[in-house]
Design goal:
There is one protein chain. It contains two helices and no strands. By secondary structure, it is mainly α. It has one domain. It is rod-shaped and about 110 Å long. It starts with a helix and ends in a 5-residue tail after the last helix. Keywords: Lipoprotein, Signal. This is YnbE-like lipoprotein.
Length: 62
């Protein structure tokens, strides 16, 4: 019985030393997101000959 009384606190101290510790810390510098985006587009329109001549003759339509 005396041996159990001795080993029980020793075992408890040893197990307490093995418990994992998790720590969360915020970063010191703020998080930056660089959003440099270059957007280019081209529109190709295919038209009939009649519409093409109409657009050439009547430039005031658009």
């Amino acid at each position: 019985m005396k041996q159990q009384a001795f080993w029980l606190p020793v075992l408890a101290v040893m197990l307490a030393g093995c418990t994992p510790r998790i720590e969360l810390a915020a970063p010191e510098a703020p998080i930056t997101i660089n959003m440099n985006v270059k957007i280019e587009h081209e529109i190709h329109i295919k038209v009939d000959k009649d519409v093409e001549t109409l657009l050439k003759n009547r430039s005031d339509l658009f």
